[in-house]
Specification:
Oligomer: single chain
CATH topology of the largest domain: ABC transporter involved in vitamin B12 uptake, BtuC
Number of domains: 2
Strand content: under 5%
Largest sheet: none
Order of helices and strands: HHHHHHHHHHHHHHHHH
CATH architecture of the largest domain: Orthogonal Bundle
Structural class: mainly alpha
Helix content: over 70%
Number of helices: 17
């Protein structure tokens, strides 16, 4: 006899929640850990804004913060998959350094001098980026093969890589700084020219809002198709408003930061634009490295949640023995994860070197600390099997916010390192508590 009190499968559990906040969270299905991080980020921003005398929450600082976060944000999307499979990669900063040097040498020496491509040739930045990707993927394949097939622990392999690739970066140019970068390549680093401007920023906002609405509609359609519980209509509307509101707010901040006065004046003079007495206001808009980081985040989220490879990664992290018994080629999946990590390091190297307009020996120093910390703060469990790309991106923003805020307050570098280390330990402790309470 059927249970008369059973809940129909198509009724959402939020209808039975008593607390309004609990009902809202259950109806919208928002991740409470993600909300906790957003709350922590808000506290960090407000705190630094108070202690810096209102300098932190300005369009200029927030725009710079987004650009500074881009390279770590790109790498942390790959570190999530590495840590989910119970591995670690301590070499990402060194890979970034050596790949940055390779791309710098390609632009300043090999392509112009040895291959005869003139400075400013449209293929220089393409070939340089391609060379960097090949080197990054190659390094990742080498390290992944040693880890997967020779059974050397990832900690040891990547610790060795941390030393080897940092030395190789010095060896490429015998320690000299390589500069300047190709003008088109520099656009990947941000700046007035490396931003899309006000109009294109709004176009990006429209596309992003449309994607949010389509995603919500498609998700609801799929739930109905498979007879899963449907979110209440008001919850769908709330999610759409929150998502589109965040997008519009970010674009308003990006467009509120104008070009420097002299650069705007030179641009006006070169293009015959009259300059008003109050000065010429030209918006930066969204920076190109930020768009690259967001694009990587979207692609990596799709890979992690909508592909067979992504399912294999999380299955390996949850139970490696069961994954292997189920027929998953865990060794080859491990190699592919490290190859993907190497490619992401190459993209981050392009952003970092383009932003500095130079490839230096210090490029990527301590980035491995920030990337691992961002992943853990973002909810990726060191025990494996748990992690999200969105959480890791938010973790990268938290880490960069801490660093940027401490710089604004004039704190010394040793104290900054102490704070970052303490935050990392605290994040791992919280993860331990979360998993203990969950079980």
């Amino acid at each position: 006899m059927a249970d008369q009190h059973a809940i129909p499968t198509n009724i959402h559990p939020s209808r039975f929640a008593q607390n309004p906040l609990q009902r809202f969270l259950m109806a919208t299905e928002l991740d409470t850990r993600l909300l906790g991080m957003i709350g922590a980020l808000a506290i960090i921003w407000i705190g630094f804004n108070i202690f810096s005398g209102g300098l932190f929450l300005t369009p200029r600082n927030l725009w710079n913060l987004s650009v500074q976060t881009a390279s770590v944000a790109v790498m942390v999307t790959g570190m999530v998959l590495v840590i989910v499979t119970r591995n670690i990669d301590l070499s990402v900063g060194s890979i970034l350094g050596v790949v940055g040097m390779v791309m710098g040498v390609m632009q300043t020496d090999i392509l112009p001098s040895q291959l005869g491509l003139g400075l400013g040739h449209p293929m220089i930045w393409v070939l340089s980026l391609a060379a960097g990707l090949v080197v990054g993927v190659g390094i990742g394949a080498l390290q992944g093969t040693i880890i997967a097939y020779l059974r050397v622990p990832a900690f040891i392999v990547t610790l060795g890589g941390y030393l080897v690739w940092r030395g190789a970066a010095w060896w490429v140019t015998m320690g000299r700084t390589v500069a300047p970068m190709d003008p088109t390549f520099q656009l990947m680093g941000g700046g007035p020219a490396g931003s899309v401007g006000s109009l294109w920023s709004w176009i990006v906002a429209v596309i992003a809002c449309a994607a949010i609405l389509i995603g919500l509609y498609w998700g609801r359609r799929q739930r109905r198709r498979f007879n899963f519980p449907l979110r209440p209509i008001w919850a769908e509307i709330a999610l759409a408003i929150i998502g589109c509101g965040l997008v519009i707010g970010a674009v308003l901040v990006a467009n509120a930061y104008p070009w420097p006065v002299r650069i705007a004046a030179r641009y006006a003079e070169a293009n015959g634009i009259p300059v008003p007495e109050s000065g010429l206001f030209i918006s930066h808009g969204i920076a190109i490295p930020v768009l690259i980081a967001l694009g990587v985040g979207v692609v990596m989220t799709f890979i992690a949640t909508r592909t067979r490879f992504g399912r294999y990664v999380f299955a390996m992290g949850g139970n490696p023995e069961a994954a292997e018994l189920a027929g998953i080629n865990t060794r080859w999946v491990t190699v592919k994860i490290f190859m993907l990590m190497g490619a992401l390091c190459a993209i981050a190297a392009a952003i970092s070197s383009a932003r500095l307009n130079a490839a230096t020996n210090a490029l990527g120093t301590l980035d491995e600390l920030y990337v691992i910390a961002a992943a853990v703060i973002g909810g990726t469990s060191l025990a494996g099997g748990v992690g999200t790309i969105a959480g890791a991106l938010l973790g990268a923003l938290v880490m960069q916010s801490l660093q940027s805020g401490m710089v604004l307050m004039g704190l010394d570098s040793p104290l900054q390192s102490i704070v970052v280390g303490a935050v990392l330990v605290f994040a791992v402790w919280l993860d331990t508590l979360y998993r203990r309470n969950k079980h």
